[in-house]
Amino acid sequence: METLNLIYYSPTGTTQKIVKKIAEELKLKLLKEYSLTSKLIDFNPEFSNNCLTIIGLPVYGGRLPLETAKKLKKLQAKNAKVVIVVVYGNRAYEDSLLELKDIVTNCGFKIIAAAAFIGEHSYSTKDKAIAAGRPDEFDLIKCTDFAHRIQTKINDLKDEEEVLDLDIPGNFPYKERATLTELNAPVTDETKCNNCGICVDVCPTNAIEMNQFIITNKELCTRCCACVKNCPTGARVFENPSINSLRERLYSICSDRKEPEFFV
Ligand SMILES: Cc1cc2nc3c(=O)[nH]c(=O)nc-3n(C[C@H](O)[C@H](O)[C@H](O)COP(=O)(O)O)c2cc1C
User: In order of start, what are the domains of the chain with their CATH numbers?
Assistant: First the structure.
């Protein structure tokens, strides 16, 4: 194994941090990095026998983000090796890792290893902190451990046939996707907004437009919180009471620290 492809979707940056740390520790030559968060991406990866791919996605409602899952389903991996990672906000990853396993297997990847890591919850705030600051230094040490286990497994493989099926937790049929309609999109508090346009740039789905005011298209918005977490003045907020009660619920049920899990 000589080179590495890195593919991730990471609106609030935690998945990116984790997969990049794993990649760094693997010490393979980075061939290409595909951030599916970017609107400008030309996503046409090529796979070969001597190239390992890492795919990392956040967990949304116990599943994978829908549009990203659709993009991945089109890949043709021709038996290339892959490491799959999901990152969740300390509640649960439910069927997401199994869903990712099934997608990459159908694309023709051979799975070397899988993991579920924890990242600060997209809906975490200063007052209601949920997995705040994660991945932290301990998580990053786990990234190093995981990379070492991947290296050992690759070095021990004698031929392709030895890549055995991994037992990944989750159920099929997968959990129903949550409908977004009841949860309104973030809005801009005009008294705090300085029209810097960062929210427009970081929105992965082009849901935000800046004219005289900032307008958010609720149909396109996936509630990923990229705009909320990246706004330098705290002007992007959820006014919706259902998000506040969801955050309240998560805050009370997700306070016990969960640890990364590896499947190798
Ligand atoms: C729409 C949405 C749904 C989410 N659903 C879950 C979930 O089911 N379980 C969980 O533990 N975290 C959930 N999260 C939290 C994210 O998985 C978590 O914050 C992750 O670290 C975000 O990744 P990113 O920083 O790469 O965007 C959800 C976040 C969003 C925006």
Answer: 3-174+257-263 (3.40.50.360), 187-239 (3.30.70.20)
